[in-house]
Design brief:
This protein is an alpha/beta fold. The chain has 18 helices and 9 strands. The chain has helices spanning 2-6, 20-33, 38-59, 65-76, 80-88, 96-111, 116-122, 127-130, 145-159, 164-178, 219-233, 251-262, 280-287, 310-318, 360-370, 383-397, 403-415, 421-436; strands at 188-192, 200-203, 241-245, 267-271, 293-298, 328-334, 350-352, 355-357, 374-378.
């Protein structure tokens, strides 16, 4: 195994120090040389098997966990070759293909690696179990179904490859069809940045299962949002979007529903909070050359008088010296139409020779909202619309709304902030709790 991992070139990151491949390679080499203590070697082997099992649990792998693991490594390694294949596919006759095929020859041998000699030398039985693994059924949301299904299908395809050339074809076809790295398997992300460490994109696995059609009412608003998003996915001119209006009216739900409706068409959502705006340039650099279309989601966005983070946002929307990538848009939700809080002192206009010059302070604050080419108002529903929302949510939840319960719904909205989709949802949840008693 050490000879195989040491020959990797394009995919050398897979066997960096501390990785499962590196640890197993060192262990195999030591055991073959007859050095080291057996008990220590068994413990080291078990640590790597545990890491494999942890990954399998996280991703929902089944059957041959080692094959799934190698397939996962190949599918998620972002290197110069895999990223190029993601964008344009494998170019016939390209010199880099020779290096790739050499790597795939080593990876194919790792894929079918025989652990029997290692197990015999240590007197353990691990990989024979991992090769025919029957996972405990997991509840929905306990693992990433997209990763599980796609990697296991990829693994089965690699099992049928008889030559490195066939392995090359299957892998490059996968890159061209699905992409590479975590963007290939996940439709939504959050950000994490700790100190000077690199920016991390954390997948969101428990996305809502409803698309825009699941949001009752607001047909005009949904049509505007859908039209802008489809144009964006088709490479046409599209606008940054501001969804504003009353709380609980479905602004955030509408944006998040886009991942459900258009994730299979290459749309990716990245949620970012205003305290993270300083990392926006780093984030833009991460996504600008990818094949996917990214929407930066800024939920419940507003700025107080002393907050200046909105200037980072303005710079990203407009582009500085480097223009904003064409595969990136900003969708923000807010209860405020103009996002930045205004004071009366901001309107201290000056009059010179009969001309009125609006305050520069107010101009700067209002200019942020003007960067959003499409502003969509979400107002509170009428009583009839509120009742229609109640009925739709109740049907989805298997709840019967009797006249008595409708009367309770009226009392509920009076006590909980008025007519809104959120109020309706909370009332139905209260009924579900009562029916479960």
């Amino acid at each position: 195994m050490h000879r195989l991992t040491s020959h990797l070139l394009l995919y050398s990151n897979l066997a960096q120090e501390g990785t499962i491949l590196a640890e197993l390679s060192a262990l195999c080499r030591e055991v073959a040389a007859g050095t080291g203590e057996r008990e220590d070697q068994v413990q080291r082997l078990y640590r790597q098997v545990k890491r494999l099992l942890d990954l399998a649990t996280q991703c929902g792998f089944d059957r041959n966990l080692w094959h799934n693991f190698i397939a996962y490594l190949v599918a998620t390694d972002e290197n110069s070759f895999s990223l190029t294949c993601e964008r344009v596919g494998a170019t016939p006759g390209a010199s880099v293909n020779l290096f790739a095929i050499a790597d795939f020859e080593a990876l194919q041998k790792l894929f079918f690696f025989d652990f029997a000699p290692l197990e015999k030398a240590l007197g353990v039985e691990c990989f024979s179990i991992l090769g025919d693994y029957h996972a405990i059924p997991k509840r929905e949301g306990a693992y990433n179904r997209g990763v599980s299904q796609r990697i296991q299908a990829f693994s089965l395809a690699l099992e049928k490859c008889a030559t490195p050339a066939a392995f090359f074809q299957v892998v490059t076809d996968f890159y061209r069809q699905h992409g590479v790295g975590q963007f290939a398997f996940n439709q939504a992300f959050r950000l994490r940045k700790a100190g000077d460490s690199p920016l991390e994109l954390l997948p969101v696995n428990n996305l809502d299962s409803l698309g825009l059609e699941g949001l009752v009412g607001y047909e005009r608003q949904k049509a505007l949002l859908r039209g802008n998003t489809v144009a964006f996915l088709e490479g046409k001119r599209a606008n940054n979007v501001l969804l504003y209006g009353d709380s609980g009216t479905g602004k955030s739900t509408s944006v998040k529903a886009l991942a459900h409706d258009y994730g299979d068409y290459g749309l990716r959502l990245i949620e970012i909070y205003k305290h993270q705006f300083r990392v926006l340039p780093e984030l833009v650099a991460r996504v600008k050359n990818r094949r996917y279309r990214f929407i930066l989601v800024m939920d419940d966005l507003s700025f107080e008088e002393n907050e200046v983070e909105y200037k980072y946002l303005k710079a990203v929307i407009e582009g500085g010296v480097e223009s904003k990538p064409e595969n990136l848009l900003v969708y923000a939700t807010s209860n405020r139409r103009h996002l930045v809080r205004e004071k009366w002192s901001d309107r201290a206009d000056m009059e010179h020779d009969g001309d009125i010059h609006r305050s520069d302070t107010m101009e700067e604050k209002l200019s942020l909202a003007e960067r959003f080419g499409l502003a969509i108002l979400y107002g509170n529903p009428s009583k009839g619309e509120y009742e229609a929302i109640l009925q739709a949510i109740a049907r989805r939840s298997g709840i019967e709304l009797t006249p008595a319960r409708m009367a309770l719904a009226t009392q509920w909205e009076i006590q909980h902030g008025g007519f809104s989709g959120r109020t309706a949802q909370q009332f139905i949840q209260s009924l579900e709790g009562r029916d479960a008693e």
